[in-house]
Amino acid sequence: MNLSSLVSGGCGGFSMSIVLRMAEDADFPVMAELRAAAWGEREFWMERLIRYRLGQHSPQHALLERAIFVADDAGSVVGFVAGHRTRRFDCDGELQWINVVAHRRGEDVAVRLMSRMGVWFVEQQLSRVCVNVDPANRVARRLYARCGAQALHEQWMVWEDARTMAESVSADGL
Boundaries of each N-acetyltransferase domain copy (predicted)? Predict the structure, then answer.
């Protein structure tokens, strides 16, 4: 499997102006703002995100290995995704967060981030990946399903094979 081709193929077609890269220290304020827009305060998320990256904050059953990628459009972070190794629900990996700036939602940013996270899981030789998702969040549930996830429990979805997060699927839209 050619992993670099999966990032360009992903769960749908997308703009070439966005660069996906590992998060850097300077990206954390924007990531914290994105999280705070949905819930909580920026300062809370700054601390939580930094501690998560350092392995000092871990969700239940999380293991130390983790990654955070940002979508960078001409020097501006327009979204990010985070994931880690886990033992929750007999999974190997867990998608922790995915956020996109409001004015870029509905574009290809989320699918590109999902695809990149899927490639990281495959690179880590992880297969089964879970994600916690509110049953009322139809947009997120459609995104995850579009990228190959299936319902696990009311609050959880699962990819039985992480390669489906990264491989091309139907681009029917979100």
Answer: 18-170
